[in-house]
UniProtKB/TrEMBL annotation:
This is Signal recognition particle protein. It comes from Syntrophomonas zehnderi OL-4. Involved in targeting and insertion of nascent membrane proteins into the cytoplasmic membrane. Binds to the hydrophobic signal sequence of the ribosome-nascent chain (RNC) as it emerges from the ribosomes. The SRP-RNC complex is then targeted to the cytoplasmic membrane where it interacts with the SRP receptor FtsY. Keywords: Cytoplasm, GTP-binding, Hydrolase, Nucleotide-binding, Ribonucleoprotein, RNA-binding, Signal recognition particle. SUPFAM superfamilies: P-loop containing nucleoside triphosphate hydrolases, Signal peptide-binding domain. GTP binds at residues 108-115, 189-193, 247-250. Residues 268-281 form the SRP54-type proteins GTP-binding domain. The keyword Protease does not apply. The lineage of its organism: Bacteria, Bacillati, Bacillota, Clostridia, Eubacteriales. InterPro entries: AAA+_ATPase, P-loop_NTPase, Signal_recog_part_SRP54_M_sf, Signal_recog_particl_SRP54_hlx, Signal_recog_particle_SRP54_M, SRP, SRP54, SRP54_GTPase_dom. GO terms for cellular component: signal recognition particle.
Length: 442
């Protein structure tokens, strides 16, 4: 999981602080020394770390903090505020032109995820009711045009291409095409190189001058840490980028890039790539990111994800069933599939405050393979058995085990788990009812 090391280290530091009723200036100093080390180890830029720690220290040793009733909490709050500021304060929207077409240009080094990101972005815009056009202007990397065409088809966005022609000509022609074909956003996927070099910059500058984009979006790979920040600096010097898209944040990245990019370049991170799939491009929320890094969870993102994936009507029906104790194994399976469609469970649980820590202990239980296994067992049951597991006798269980490649004990365990979760759900639903609110599911 991203930022795991940093998150662990910081939480250790704060646990010590929180445990104290009173803290001294010396305690703060000690804690800040550890924060500094944790940040450097997470590959955060040296200067950024230094000024961050200085800013936190200055605020934390103030009398109102040290003499407050909850000094430890106050220090954590200061770190949270400063970290949010460091990453840009609040989210930054993409600029849309009032006179279509709006033009975006994605730039970056090879392998950063530019082509994938261009397609993901077009998908998100399409979902928002826009009419995007993808433009294949990466004419050097073998198969880049084909890659964009395949992704475009996958997300249902047309791709403008002119084969290996001059990229500047392609970009110019794509705008005309967009105007005459009623496309309101043009996303130009430009060529990358292995390293920043003059030839690349000259070409990108020329395209930029020709199409005058509303956004020049630099795509960088979060996994490359400080290198990503250096690349951002170099691109920004030449091209005045308007925003950064940080990819591969779903990976095991240490956090250096996310925490340093804004401070070093002055350019905000606008979007983040959270996976290889086309739906894995999200708005970057500095406050939520800070909250995740500090182990305070990311409930807002979780709720949004849930809203995107859950069907309100279905949720209400489900709640009714739970309340009336009519919740069946079939519903259980459906819920599991909905949760699965929200993405890897590890990521979801990481968004819940306090869960990050507990996760390690229950890793075995949230194995995605296990879900498939459970799914197979439920699918081997007859509709009647799914509705009423009480009828499952020995021979039925044997049949189900055989059908799903499981052991009879596993079938037993599943039925038991289901009965227990049905009980818990009922309690939750009742609690929600008493407070006059909707139940807890989902
Ligand atoms: P380009 O050379 O910059 O156009 O890079 P590509 O778009 O071809 O991406 C390079 C690789 O990174 C591909 O395998 C992508 O699937 C992968 N990739 C891109 N974005 C993400 C992301 O957010 N998360 C993960 N895990 N992989 C990504």
């Amino acid at each position: 999981m991203a930022f795991e090391g940093l998150s662990d280290r910081l939480q250790e530091v704060f646990k010590k602080l929180r445990g104290k009723g009173k803290i001294s200036e010396e305690d703060v100093k000690l804690a800040m020394r550890e924060v500094r080390l944790a940040l450097l180890e997470a590959d955060v830029n040296y200067k950024v770390t230094k000024s961050f720690v200085a800013a936190v220290s200055e605020r934390a040793v103030g009398q109102e903090v040290l003499q407050s009733v909850t000094p430890g909490q106050q220090v954590v709050k200061i770190v949270y505020d400063e970290m949010t500021q460091l990453m840009g304060g609040s989210e930054t929207k993409l600029t849309m032109s009032s006179k279509p077409p709006t033009v975006f240009m994605t730039v970056g080094l090879q392998g950063a995820g530019k082509t994938t990101t261009a397609a993901k972005l077009s998908r998100n815009l399409l979902k928002q009711g826009r009419r995007p056009l993808l433009v294949a202007a990466d004419v050097y990397r073998p198969a880049a045009i084909k890659q964009l065409q395949v992704l475009g088809e996958q997300v249902g966005v047309p791709v403008f291409s002119m084969g290996q022609s001059n990229p500047v000509d392609i970009a110019r022609a794509s705008l005309e095409y967009a105007r005459s074909n009623n496309r309101d956003i043009v996303i130009i996927d430009t060529a990358g190189r292995l390293h920043v070099n003059e030839e690349l910059m000259a070409e990108l500058l020329q395209i930029q001058k020709t199409v005058n984009p509303h956004e020049t979006l630099l795509v960088v790979d979060a996994m490359t840490g400080q290198d990503a920040v250096n690349v951002a600096e170099a691109f920004n010097d030449q091209l005045s980028i308007t925003g950064v898209i940080l990819t591969k944040l779903d990976g095991d990245t240490r956090g250096g890039a996310a925490l340093s990019v804004k401070a070093v370049t002055g350019c905000p991170i606008k979007l983040v790539g959270m996976g290889e799939k086309m739906d894995a491009l999200e708005t970057f929320y500095p406050e939520r990111m800070a909250s995740r890094i500090l182990g305070m969870g990311d409930i807002l993102s979780l709720v949004e994800k849930a809203q995107e994936n859950f069907d309100e009507q279905k949720a209400r029906e489900m709640e009714q069933k739970i309340r009336k104790q009519e919740f069946t194994l079939e519903d259980f399976l459906e819920q599991m599939q909905q949760v699965k469609s929200m993405g890897p469970l590890q990521d979801l649980l990481g968004m819940i405050p306090g869960m990050d820590k507990q996760l390690k202990g229950i890793e075995g239980q949230i194995d995605e393979k296990e879900i498939l296994h459970v799914e197979a067992i439920i699918r081997s049951m007859t509709p009647e058995e799914r509705r009423n597991p009480a009828i499952l006798n020995g021979s039925r269980k044997k049949r189900i085990a055989r059908g799903s490649g499981a052991k009879v004990q596993e079938v037993n365990r599943l039925v038991k788990q289901f009965e227990e979760s049905r009980k818990v759900m009922k309690q939750f639903a009742d609690m929600g009812g008493k407070k006059g609110k909707r139940g807890a599911f989902p």
